[in-house]
Amino acid sequence: MILTKYQLPPPPTNISELSLWDALEEFLMALRSSGASEKTIKAYRAGISDFIKFCGKGFVKEVTVNDVIKWRLSRLREGFDRSVKDDVKARQLTLHYYSLYVRSFLKWLGLKDEVSIVKAPRRRSITTLSDNEVVKLLNASRDLLDLLIICLLIETGLRAQELLSLTIDDIDLEGREIYVRSGKYGEERVVFIGPLTERVLSKYLEGFNSSDGRLIPLTYSGLYKRLKTLAKRAGLDPKKVRPHILRHTFATEALKKGLALPALQAILGHKDIKTTQVYLHLLKEDIKKLYMNIFSKQPTLGKELTQTT
Q1: Exactly one of 70, 89, 244, 289 is catalytic; which is it?
Q2: Is 115 within a domain?
Q3: Domain assignment of residue 233, given as a range
Q4: Which partner for 156 in 56, 118, 170, 191 could form a disulfide, CB atoms 3.0-4.6 Å apart?
Q5: Is residue 286 one of the residues assigned to a domain?
Q6: Which one of the listed residues 72, 226, 247, 248 is annotated catalytic?
Q7: Number of structural domains the chain divides into
Q8: How far is it, in rounded angstroms, from Cα 129 to Cα 283?
C-alpha cells in the first residue's frame, strides 16, 4: 500500500483552511479516484485518524512536524488502543505503516518539512512444512474439500482471502489456470493448476453445487478451524498449519525446483520483488549442501604446496 503507485489529483486550493477531518475525507476521495482498493482506503483512514486524534489540532494549517514526532514517540512507548502493549514488534510494525500513511497525507496537504518513517521491525523467521508434513496433511484429509484446500494452497501459494474468494467462473480446468482477484491490491493475476490440484479439482467439480458459485464454501474462521483440525489429525503442531505457512512452503519449493524469482513474484502477486527475495534466505542450507557435494572431492595438492601445509 505505497502511495507512490497512485497518481493523486492535487488537493483543493483552500485545503489549508479545512479541518483535518474534512481534509482526510478529501484525501481518501482522491485516493479512491486513483484506483486504491477499499482495503487500502480503510488502512489509510485508520492510520491517519489515529494521528489526528492524538495531535488534537483543528485545522490543516496548524499541523507541524513536531506533532508527528510526539505522536510517534507516544505510540512507540504506549502502543495503540487495540494493541497488546507488551508486543513491541507488533506495535512497531503498525507504527511503520501508520507513519507511511501520515507522511503521504501531509505531503499531499503541502507540508514542506520532511516527515520520517518509523523503521519496520526485522521479519520473524519464516516457517515452512517439509515434504513429509505435507503428505501427512493430505493423508489426514476427511473429504474432497479438505484435499482441495491443501492442494490449492500448496500448489498455488494463494492467500487465505484469495482462496475463499474463488468462484467456479475463475477456474479454467482445461487450460489449468485460475484467475485470482487480490483483496490486498485490488488487482487480478493468474495462478496455475498443479497435478495434484487438477486430479482433486476434477473430482470435486463433478458434484459441485453452490448457490453463489463459491468454490470453497467457508468463512475465514472456518478455514482456519478446518486446517487446525487437519493438523491435529496428521499429528502436526496446529501452529505450523496456517494458510500463509502453506504459501511460504509453496514459494520455497518453487525456488528449489528452479522457478525464476520474477515468475514466482508474479504468481504470488507481490508488488515488489524484494518481498519475494525473502524466500532466497530459506534456501541457504540447500545451496550449502550442493556446494559441499560439488567441492567435497579435494584435488590432489601439488608437491610444493603439500610441503608448506
Answers
A1: 244
A2: no
A3: 131-243
A4: 191
A5: no
A6: 247
A7: 2
A8: 13
- What strand order describes the sheet that includes 177-181? 171-172, 177-181, 188-192
Alpha carbon separation from 161 to 71, 157, 220 (Å, rounded):
33, 12, 7
pLDDT digits (tens, 9 = 90+) for 48-77: 999 999 999 999 999 999 999 999 999 988
Name the active-site residue from 57, 96, 184, 233.
Answer: 184
Q: Is residue 66 a part of any domain in this protein?
A: yes
Q: Are 264 and 255 in contact (CB under 8 A)?
A: yes
Shared-domain flag, residues 135 and 230: yes
Q: Is 247 a catalytic residue?
A: yes
Q: Is the domain of 173 the same as that of 69?
A: no
Q: Rounded to 10 degrees, what is the CA torsion of 40, 46, 50, 56?
A: 90
Q: Does the annotation mark 270 as catalytic?
A: yes
**Domain holding 78: CATH number?**
1.10.150
In a domain, 237, yes or no: yes
Q: Which of 193, 226, 243 is the last residue of a domain?
A: 243
Active site residue: 32, 45, 228, 270, which one? 270
* This model's pTM is above 0.85: no
Residues 68 and 167 occupy one common structural domain: no
Give catalytic status of residue 184 as yes or no.
yes
Which of 72, 91, 103, 159 is an active site residue?
159
Q: Is 281 noted as a catalytic residue in this protein?
A: no
Q: Residue 279 catalytic?
A: yes
User: Which of the following is catalytic: 44, 185, 204, 279?
Assistant: 279
End of a domain among 198, 213, 243?
A: 243
pLDDT tens sequence across 73-111: 999 888 887 654 456 777 888 899 999 999 999 999 998
Q: How many helices (H) and strands (E) does the chain have?
A: 14, 3
